[in-house]
Specification:
135 residues, alpha/beta, Rossmann fold, five-stranded parallel sheet, 5 helices, 5 strands, globular
Length: 135
């Protein structure tokens, strides 16, 4: 029996990334960091409803979801995106790094958790984790 072959993950320059955060400053900061890491295909959502809609339209390689957003919070958006694509690579982000937030994120299927404000190192770690998950 042959081992299951994993699909190679795209390089950062070929990735489609969705950033969902209701705070413009946080969206811009993450977008800037992603661009310095050579990610050029970045979509933006200002709330959870927009995030789910944009993911449904494009099926992004990676999604950064803020937990506290209007209309539909990050946990609810995570659940809906995982219905659309059960293996979606979703990273939850929050200014509140409580153990409960991290635990709930991982239990719901998030692949990572990043505390705001973002740093290039943490975002680079998530990109690396994404690439290694497909290797």
């Amino acid at each position: 029996m042959e081992p299951k072959k994993l699909t190679p993950r795209p390089a950062p320059s070929e990735m489609n990334v969705l950033v969902a955060d209701d705070q413009l400053a946080m969206r811009d900061l993450l977008k800037t960091i992603l661009r310095t890491l050579r990610v050029s295909n970045i979509d933006i959502a200002g709330d959870g409803v927009q995030a789910v809609d944009r993911f449904r339209q494009k099926r992004h390689d990676m999604v950064f979801l803020d937990i506290e957003m209007p209309e539909l919070n990050g946990f609810s958006a995570l659940r809906q995106i995982r219905i659309i694509e059960p293996d979606a690579f979703i990273v939850m982000v929050s200014a509140h790094s409580s153990v409960d937030n991290v635990k709930k994120s991982l239990e719901l299927g998030a692949k990572g958790f990043v505390v705001k404000p973002y740093t290039s190192i943490k975002i680079a770690d998530m990109l690396k984790k994404y690439r290694e998950a497909g290797a």
